[in-house]
Amino acid sequence: MIYHSHSPEETEAWGETCGKALEKGAVIAFSGDLGAGKTAFTRGIARGLGITSPITSPTFTLVNEYEEGRLPLFHFDLYRLEGEDDLYELGFEEYFYRDGVCVLEWSSRAEEFLAQFSPITVTLRQGEDPQQREIHIHPCPW
Ligand code: ADP
Ligand code: MG
Question: Average pLDDT for residues 42-67, to the nearest whole number?
Answer without folding.
Answer: 95
